[in-house]
Fold this protein.
Amino acid sequence: MNRGGLLWIAVDQRRTRGREIAAIVRPYSAPMARLFLSHSTKDKDDALKVRDALEKAGHIVFVDSDHDDGIAPSAQWRPALFRGIRVCHAMVFLNSPNSRDSKWCHTELALTLEKSKPVYAVNLTKDVQPHDLLTDRQAIRLETDLE
C-alpha cells in the first residue's frame, strides 16, 4: 500500500523440510491503527471531517454517528461505545466546550484512560481549556481546513 510515497510490505517466508526456500513479497494492507473518535454530537460536522482525514491516512476510525460503521439505528448504543473503546488502539478526543460539557465524552475518556490506551486531544478552537482528565497532556491544535 502506498502511504505518503512509501510502499509498506510484509514478507511471508515459506519453509520446506526446515529449509527456507522463498520469500513472497506482497503489499502490506493492514490499517495503521484502529481509532476511537470521541466528540460531542454538537461537533458532528468537525468529527466527520477529522474521521475522513484519518481514514485517508490509512486508519480505521470508529465514530458513533457514522451510519455505515458507527452505531446502527435501534442498536444498543452503550455496548457499542464500550466495544469501540475496548477494540481501539487509541482515542482521538475532539476537545471543545461541547465535549468538555458532555458526560458521555467524559465517560469515554475515563474508560480509555483506565485501559491505559493513548489519548490524543485535538483542540477545535484556539482558546478551549483541556478536559479535566487531560490536563497533564499536550494537545494538538487543529489549524487546518479539512475540507
